[in-house]
From TrEMBL:
Keyword Cell division: no
Segments traversing the membrane: 17-37
Subcellular location: Membrane
Keywords recorded for this protein, A-Z: Membrane, Signal-anchor, Transmembrane, Transmembrane helix
Domain Trichome birefringence-like C-terminal: 135-426
InterPro entries: TBL, TBL_C, TBL_N
Name of protein: Protein trichome birefringence-like 23
One GO CC annotation: membrane
Provenance organism: Abeliophyllum distichum
Length: 486
């Protein structure tokens, strides 16, 4: 016999069937914990790539909190029975990309590898496969249904811009995004999906802190960056509380030549031999800024979900971007075939240490901070970059032409699209906990909007949830990542 779900629950409430309600709640809470704890805890030119040749590294101020394997690029294997989405393999995939350069208008020319004449297409036919658990493909329809009246922001450098283009391309297969804002240089932008009242923004803040940058449009700098280590960039902090979900990242820009300030006084520098300043090393600055970023997040009382995305490796071989380095591979690498450069190891060490210190404090303060660790799976994709095809038809006139390669950013479509699969999976873990807690505390504590949102999720996911293995969850993105009592 079928009952309207509202009538069913109201009848239980009216007749005070406490034991039945309690039993349902306990089952859902148990399901939530079972699902949650099968996881582990936890448009720019190539000149965005820093000059790595003269990078100075200061001695680490603390004993590392992470394993050497983790620093080298691959997380250590979790305890038996647990699943880490970021430990896995790239496996062949016979399907086609969700979008192409012809179907998506958001791809910037430098990442439009297909339009620019890249002859091979094998790099499009791989999917990330975590070991020990299933990863569903990103479902743009269900995603948009689940983020009605919500807002997302990707905050960082040109890789964040690369990522937002990937998201826009996938979501626009359902409804095309409409741009509603851009700054003068088109580096910070915002789009809306009108039917869903869903907004997604990209905020340009490559160092996350206040900085004066003296580069032209081609990335040629006439002076060192002036970086204030103790002042966060208001380009993102002034909008911080307005977003329901954020993906924050940095890293590569810290390797550029810079003068460091604290209290508006010169503290030292990185790679400034012509100036009489103390050489502090880029890792000193990265650690200082990340500490301040995480401290700001911890104290923010933000009611949404915040991801810190780890820095992504480049794949230049036989040189850097400025010295003939190239990326000519056409298939993914095997684990261990590619290692992080010394500079990338330092960046990764700093961000993992600082995140680990911040994570527990954030949890204590009720702030939902998660690590989005795309570094290991990205390390295995040297085939996914534009290379010489950042330019339009670079070998049309001369098949031996010499050109600058981009081995940092990602082709679109390409491996970066798999980041969205991971993102959706990480978000829906919280959904299960919300459902269980809502059932446990009773519907009378919820607003009508919460109940409607829950009903939409259940109607599309209940049967699927019952049929899935215990390490997968139904898609959906309720609320701000936690229960909101009214």
């Amino acid at each position: 016999m079928l009952y309207n779900w509202k009538y069913w629950w109201r009848s239980l409430h009216n007749h005070n069937y406490f034991i039945i309600k309690l039993g349902v709640s306990i089952l859902l809470v148990g399901l939530a914990f079972m699902l949650l704890y099968t996881r582990s805890t936890g448009f720019s030119p190539v000149t965005d790539t820093p000059f790595l040749g003269n990078a100075q590294i200061s001695p680490p101020p603390v004993v590392p909190l992470i394993s050497q394997e983790n620093i080298d690029g691959f997380p250590s294997v979790d305890d038996a029975g647990k699943c880490n989405l970021f430990i896995g393999d790239w496996i062949p995939y016979q399907g086609e990309p969700i979008y192409t350069n012809e179907s998506c208008s958001f791809i910037e020319d430098h990442q439009n590898c297909m339009k620019n004449g890249r002859p091979d297409t094998g790099y499009l036919h791989w999917r990330w496969n975590p070991r020990g658990c299933k990863l569903a493909r990103f479902d743009p329809d269900r995603f948009l249904e689940s983020v009605r009246n919500k807002s997302w922001a990707l905050i960082g450098d040109s890789i964040s811009r690369n990522h937002v283009q990937s998201l826009l391309c996938i979501l626009s297969t359902i409804e095309k995004a409409v741009e509603v804002y851009h700054d003068e240089g088109y580096k910070s932008r915002r789009w809306i999906f009108p039917t869903y009242n869903f907004t997604i923004s990209v905020l340009w803040s490559p160092l996350l802190a206040k900085a004066a940058i003296f580069e032209d449009m081609n990335g040629v700098s006439k002076s060192e960056i002036e970086l204030h280590l103790d002042i966060l960039d208001t380009n993102w902090t002034k909008q911080y509380q307005s977003f329901d979900y954020m993906i924050i990242s940095s890293g590569k820009w810290f390797v550029k030549n810079a003068i460091y300030y604290e209290n508006n006084m010169v503290l030292g520098c990185h790679n400034c031999p012509k100036r009489n300043f103390t050489e502090l090393g880029f890792n000193f600055a990265y650690r200082k800024v990340l500490h301040n970023v995480f401290d700001y997040i911890i104290r923010s009382n933000h009611k949404g979900m915040i991801f810190y995305r780890t820095s992504t490796p480049d794949h230049f071989e036989n040189g850097e971007w400025f010295s003939g380095g190239a990326c000519r591979r056409t298939v993914p690498a095997e684990e261990g075939e590619f290692g992080l450069s010394e500079v990338n190891k330092v960046l990764r060490e700093v961000e993992l240490e600082e995140f680990e210190k911040a994570s527990a404090k954030a949890s204590e303060n009720g702030v939902n901070l998660k690590l989005f660790d795309v570094n290991p799976l990205s390390l295995l994709r040297p085939d996914g970059h534009p290379g010489p095809y950042r330019f339009f038809q670079p070998f049309a006139k001369d098949k031996n032409a010499k050109t600058i390669n981009d081995c940092l950013h990602w082709c679109l479509p390409g491996p970066i699209d798999s980041w969205n699969d991971l993102l959706m999976d990480m978000v829906v873990n919280v959904i299960i906990a919300n459902i269980a807690l809502w059932m446990a505390v009773g519907w009378t504590t919820l607003s009508q909007a919460d109940i409607i949102e829950y009903r939409c999720l259940v109607s599309s996911s209940a049967a699927e949830l019952a049929a899935r293995p215990t390490h997968t969850q139904p898609a959906g993105l309720l609320g701000h990542g936690r229960v909101t009592m009214k």
